[in-house]
Amino acid sequence: MASVSLSSIRKSFGTVEVLHGIDLEIEKGEFVVFVGPSGCGKSTMLRLIAGLEEITSGTLQIDGEKANDIPPGERGIAMVFQSYALYPHMTVFQNMAFGLEMAGMARDEIDRRVRKSAHMLQLTDYLERYPRNLSGGQRQRVAIGRAVTRDPKVFLFDEPLSNLDAALRVATRIEIANLKEQMPDSTMIYVTHDQVEAMTLADRIVVFNSGHIEQIGTPLELYDRPRNLFVAKFIGSPEMNILQGSLKMEGAAPFLKMDEAALQLPQGAILKPSMAGRPLMVGIRPEHVRLSDPASARLSGKVLFSEKLGELTNLHLAIDKGAEVAFIAKLPDLVDVRRGEQVHLTFNDDKLHYFDADGLALS
Ligand code: ADP
Ligand code: MG
Predict the structure, then answer these.
(1) What is the CATH number of domain 4-228?
(2) pLDDT per residue over 39-62, tens digit each?
(3) How much distance in Å is there from the Cα of 43 to the middle of ligand 1?
(4) Which of 109, 188, 349, 354 could covalently link to 155 via disulfide, CB atoms 3.0 to 4.6 Å apart?
(5) The domain at 241-355 falls in which architecture?
C-alpha cells in the first residue's frame, strides 16, 4: 500500500482556479476524510489524485514517486462514487469480476479475489443476484467490493453513502469501518458531508474551504482545538454558538461585553489585561451548555422553540439583553420548557473557545 503526498497542488478550469496550493501528506494505511462546503474542491482533489483530471501545477507523489503524468489505470487507485454504476445485466459476481477479466487475470485468481472481497463485505450470499434485486446499501457494497478486488494501493471514496437512506447509511458506514480494519495497510481517502461519518471513520480529517485547507487533524483535535472560526462552526452539530463583543477587564477579571449583556470569563493564560478593549468572540458548543438555577447562571435567555429529539432536546434561545444571537443548548433527555419561557444556563470554563476579530483562535 502507499503514501500519498500533495505538494502545492493547484487546479484551474480555464481561467478559474479552484484549488489554490494544497499541501498534504497522507501516510500509508491512513484513513483520511475530506470535509468542506459544497463546491470547495473535494471531488476535484480526488479526481486529480486518480488522474481523471490534469494537475495544473504542483506535485503528486504516490509511494514517493511522482505520479502527475502516470496514466490513471497505472496509478494503483480505485475510486468509489456516489452513484454505484453497476452493470444491470451482470450478477454481483460478474460485476466484481469484470475489471479483472478485462485486465486478463487468470480465472481462479479472479474467483479467489471476488470471493474474498465478497466475504469482507458480507456479500457472499448475493453473488448470483442481479443489482435490481439488491438494496441501495448492498449495491454500494458491491461497488466497494469491485474496488477491493482490484487490490489498489489507494482507495478514493467520493460521498459513497449519500444516496442511501439513514438506516442503510449507518449499516454501510459500519461495513466500511470493518473493511478498513480488515485492510489495515490500505490508504483510504474519503469525501463526505456527514459529520458522523467523518468523526467515526477518520484517522485524520482535512477541512477544505474555497479551494484551500483550513485545518488538518484528528477528529478530536478539530473538535477540541479548532484553529479558526470556520473549523469551529463546521465541525460539530448543531454548530458552535458564537457570542460577539469586546474584552473588558475589571482588575484581572475578564468578561465579554456584549451590547447590554456581559459574560464573565475565566482568568487564565489566554485573556490578558493587555487585550482589553479588543473585539472578541466566545464560542461554546450546544452540547456543553447546561440548565442551571438563576443564582449560578452564566447566561439567561428566552426559549424561541424546542426540538424534542427523544434522547435529547435542542433549545433555541434568544440570549437576554440585546445580544441578538441565535443560541442553542443541546440538553440530554427530554426537557419540558415552553416557548417564551425564561431559562438559565451554565457551562464549564474549559469548554469555551476564544477567537479574535479575524476569526483566529486564541490559545
Ligand atoms: P466539491 O466536491 O467540494 O463539492 P468540486 O471539486 O466538485 O467541489 O468543485 C470545485 C469547484 O470547481 C466548483 O466551483 C466547481 O464548479 C468547479 N468545477 C469542478 N469541475 C469542473 C469542470 N470540469 N469544469 C469547470 N469547473 C469545474
Ligand atoms: Mg463533490
Answers:
(1) 3.40.50.300
(2) 999 999 999 999 999 999 999 999
(3) 7
(4) 188
(5) Beta Barrel (2.40)
